[in-house]
Structures are given as structure tokens and as C-alpha cells.
Amino acid sequence: MPRSKSKSVSFHEDVTNDTFHLSEMKISDVKGSAEKRTMTLIGKNVCHDSVYINAAKIFQGIRNKKPKDKMLVRYGDDSVSPALTFEDEYSQRVSYELAFNALKYQELLEEILLDSCVYPCQSIPDELTSLLVVMLYDLQDRKFEAREIFDEEEPVAEVRKIEHFLYSFRIKLAAALARYRIKHDALSIEYILPETIRKHEQRASALPLCVWINTFKTSLQDVVRDLKNKGFTEVESVSDFNHYTYCMDQHCHDVLFFPSSLKEELLNSDLFADCKLLLQDKSRSLAVHSVQALLNMDGDVIVAHVGSHLTIAHMSALRNCSMSRVFVCGVKSSAKADELRNLFNHMGCENIQLLYEDFTEIRPTDPRLQNAKVILLIPQCSGLGFSNPIDFILSEHGDAGLLKDLLQGSVSKDKLCRLAERQLTELMHAMKFKVQAIVYCTSSVYPEENELVVKKALESGVEGHKLKRFRLVPPVFPTCSNPESCTDFFFRTELSEMSSGCFLAIIAREKDSSENVSVQDILARAASKGLLGSTAEETRDNDKKQWKVTEHGNGVTASGTKPKRAEFHHHKVPSPSNINTAVSVSKAVTKLRKKNVSQPVSYVQPKKPVSPAAGTGLPRVLKHAAHLPSIGKVHGRQMLARKARAERKKVVLKPVEIVFPPVISPYVCPQPGMPNSSSYFDRTGARSVSDRALPPPLPKSGQTNRAKESAVAVRVLKLSSRFTEKVE
Length: 728
Known about the structure:
Elements: H1 5-15, H2 19-25, H3 33-42, H4 49-62, H5 89-104, H6 106-115, H7 129-141, H8 157-168, H9 170-183, H10 195-206, E1 209-213, H11 220-229, E2 233-234, E3 245-248, E4 255-258, H12 263-267, H13 270-273, E5 277-279, H14 282-294, E6 300-303, H15 309-318, E7 326-328, H16 334-347, E8 352-354, E9 372-377, H17 389-396, H18 401-408, H19 413-430, E10 437-442, H20 451-460, E11 470-473, E12 490-493, E13 502-509, H21 519-528, H22 534-546, E14 547-551, E15 564-568, H23 576-592, H24 629-648, H25 703-727
Parallel strand pairs: 2-3, 6-7, 6-9, 7-8, 9-10
Antiparallel strand pairs: 1-4, 1-5, 3-4, 10-13, 11-13, 12-13, 14-15
Helix pairs in contact: 4-5, 4-7, 5-7, 6-9, 7-8, 14-15, 19-20
């Protein structure tokens, strides 16, 4: 017989929580989204025998244990962890939900068995008591009606025996339940639960659906267009939800939120069936976006734990436009590797490398990981910050003991210490790798698993003397609309009706002021953070108009390339704003490469004579300086000698990029006390406004040369003055 209508709807909503995961388990036998949804609908009104067996094993390990003198219902030995085998992820979810419900109402179910005199029973051994309790909960959930059984189902003798036993006493069991509700003045068994548990379940059921866009399959623009065609309207925030609405996330540009009431309809849509939209808690999207903001164009990522394959796929999608790879540790078996490959292939992921070793077993000098720049560490944690414990256990491979911890409202000290010790070990091992940063994320509400682990790792000094120390840096998200939330070194979200709770910390290596950072890396990081706008593009266009780069054949760098020389394209005087922009960029690049550039690497030559500004006080007699042949010969010999010395002192340099500010200053004679520059202007044939010729300036080559040049300039001025007086 089918279930009652109200219970069928409730169970239907629970089953749809992970319909996407069900479809993933059958990736190798994909037959279309319509058939998948049909298979899901068939299994909603019935629990197979294997589900009862697995649920009983789970309940046996997490049940509340009483002292022997107060134990009226006896269970079998649970010293050995039972082996669980699931047909698919749908069966896995239903098994955990059934075990969790039996745990929540354990006191009620045991009271019903005792009050109805159904227990104890000599025909049922203690080893089957867990199965008896689990099947009793499902029987009362069906309003004590018979279970529908399909012919293709493989029967299990123990299940059929317990089922027949309970159904024969269904009237006594129903009467005992009614007496218990009257005694506790409860309208339904849900009111028997503690207030904290009821609020937690209500909060989890009302939590907005968080999905991320799989850019391997589609784009944000295409998804928005599809949603608009389906009648959805975009709103500003979650508080503005009104049925067919959605909103963009404020931290992650590829994350959308939908009302919880649309879960079934969305999961049955083509967007989810084709893996264009993927349902996952926002905390994992925050973690992968934090990694993305720290990477350049070609840096690899190390994911320390398999965890949720959705987290790995999201990281892969964000790195789709780069040459980087995502290394996943702890796959352990070839069967698991094949399963993951099928899932990733179905989602379109192509840049994922699977490693069989656990993260702590991999050496920091492993040649496979030498290009890794960031490590994503999401360790096993208590998980009390997660809104739905079943989702956490299934997606993150969490411990079933979380169900018991959630009912108790806390985690035991021994368990918390074990978790914190393991987390500290993994974080310290990650710090031994030659990576730039580590992203640490948990779903815990305890400082022992969050701040204290990070602080202890930083204080340990495990990096050694050869590597730079790590330090805390505040997380930065590309589209964060609230910058104040990113000012703290730790990022937190509290468990609420809007989101699950999570903790996020980023530690990065200290950078030397002389560290050589390429312009491409700077632009890549700025682009990943959304900092490049129209201003940068306009500045780049103006620079292209004002500057022209050409190659010259003088000298070859260490890499075999010829150094480049910059030439003036025209001599238009730039505006003050452009000058300030160019000068600031030049200063920034100079600071980054101050120690690497110690010799002149380029020469700038004007294509036309540069005329100095009028009224500079230059002597009028220089107009006839070209008529002094003796002085010109001396000057020519000095120039040849200096060029010969410069050729001998030439050093093969590596090609670097230098941005010159478009500033044309008037000619000034070099003085002995002026500092030497890494690049200079070689002006020849310049004339003033009044058509007065200027002698070519002499290159700077030491204090002695500058003194000689000054003396020659003084002599030229004196001879010119005398010649002018004679002419007049």
C-alpha cells in the first residue's frame, strides 16, 4: 500500500535533496535525463530490503548507549565497524536518513516496543534489535500500512522476518504510540524532539538553494537567458525572493541562489540534468574562488583531499582558461579513480590529475607538483556548521557520528582533539611545499579546528630556513560588495536561515621587495580580482599611441633574443594625468626589479630634433657653434673613445620590460654631482625655438668623464662668446 499523502510529500522533498548525486552514480550508463527522473520517482514510495540492512548498521554505530543497569532494550555487539554496500547514492541517502530518524526518536521507539509488550521476544536476537527499531520507525511513518514490494527486488530473510513480526502487532504498536503522544501532549512525533533540533531542521529546509555555473557546459549569459525564458526574474538579494526568482551571489561571480521551494522543479530541469547548474553549499565555492584569486595564468593547484567531487569540478572550471592543472590527492584505488574520471568527463573537466597517495604521504619535492602555487586544504572536521548533516556526510565523506553530535549539540573533547591534531598535521605538511599560498577551509564552529590550528601552524616554523615564512592574509573575493567583510584575516559565515557556517583562512609566503614579478602575473592577478577596468585600457591605448618599440641589432641577451629599444612615435606633450599614470607605473616596475636591472638596457632616440622650450636662458652665441672645426674634431675623437670603452664594458643582459614616462625635458648640461641613470636620452641635432644649434650632449661615464665634459662645455662657451664679439 502507498504511504499517506502528507508523508509522501515530505519524503518526496527529502529524496530530491540529492537527485543530482543519484544521476552521477549512473554516469557510465547515461540514458537521458527523463529516464533518470523516472527511476527516481519509482523509488520514492518504497524502501528496499538492502536499505533497511544498511540503515540498521549505521544506527548500530551511532545509537545512544545507556548504562547496563538502565538498559531495557539490548543491542548486539558494535565493537566492529560494519561494512556498508550501497546500490547507488539514492539508496545511500535513504539509508542515512532512516538511521538518523531512528536515532532522533530512539527513546520513543524503545518505549513503544516495551509498552506494547512486543519486546522482548525470544525469536529476535539482540543482533537484530537495530533492524527492529529502524523498521518500526518506517512502519509508523507509513501509518502502520503494509510496504509495497516489487518483484525484481532481491529479498533479505532477516528483513522479511522482522517486517512480518511488526506488521502482526501493528494495532498494539499504534496504541502504544497514541498513549505516548497523549502523555507528552504532542500533536505529532516531531513535537517530541528538543527545540534546538526542530529549529535546526526548519532552518535547513528553508535554506536557499546555492548553485554554481559549470562553464565547461555553458556560460553565465546563457544561463540567465534560459532562466528568463523559463519565467524567472533576477532580484537583488535573497530577502527579495518571490517564487520564480533568483539572485547573484555577492562574493562569487558564478554562483546563483534560488528559493528552497523550487528545489524539486530545478533538480528536474534540463539545466541540472545536463550538469550546467550544480547544487553545492556556498562554503566550498568561497574556498575555490579564494584559490583562484591567488593564482597566475599557469600555476597548478593541489587539492589535499578528494572530499566532494563537486568542489574539484568547480576548481577545474575556474582554471579552464589557463594552462594550470588541478592535482587531487588521496584517490587510493583504481575503482575510485575510474568513478571520478567518469564523473569529471560527464561534467566536461579536462585539467584534473588524480593521485593515489594521501596528501601527507606525498613529498614536498615531488616532481609532479613543482609548478604548484596554491594548496586547497579542506580537512575532515566536526561539520556542525553545515546546515544539512546528511548532505555533509554524503558529499564530504563525513563521519556518521556527526548525526549523534548534532543531536547532542556538541562534539566530545576526545573527538575534537583528534580532529584538531590531524588538521594541524596536514596544514604543517602543506607549509613544507614550495607554494605561494594555502587556503584552509572547514565547516566547524569550534576555534580548536579553526583559528587555533592556523596560529599553531604559523608558530611552528615548519618551513625551515630555506623557505620564506608564511603569514596570514585577508581573503579577497572578486565581486565582494561588502569590503569590510574581507578586512579581517579570517572569513566566517554563521549558521543561519541564509547560509551554512564556514571558516576560511589564507596564509601566504612573505614576499621580498626585490622579488621579480612579471607584468603578466600582475595583470593576471588583477584580472582574477576584477580590478582591471576601462581606466587601465585607456592608459594602455594612450601608451601604444605615444610609444613605439623596435628591435636593434646591437647585442644579444642571455636567452638569445635581441634587446629592444624604445623610440618616440611623436613628440606631443602628454597631459599631467597621463604623466602621473606613467610615472607611477614606472616606479612600480622599477621597485620590483631594482636589484635585477643594474645596467642601461635600452636607449631612447627621438625621431626628430627636440626643441627646448623658449626662454630657457641658453646663450644666443651657440647658433654659430657649427663653424668651429677644431672643436668639432676634438668632440668627435672623444665620442669615438667613449664608444670604444662602452663596447668593452658591455654586459649580456636578460630582456626586461621597462615603461618610460612620456616626458620630454629641456636640455640640461650634465653636472659632476648628478646621479647616474639606468637609461638616458641620446639627443642629436636639437635646435631651440630661435633656431640656435646645440652641441650633442656627452654620455655619462664616471666622475672623471663628467668633469672633462664640463670643462669642454665651458671652453666652447668662451670661444663662442669671443667669436660673436668679433663678428659684431
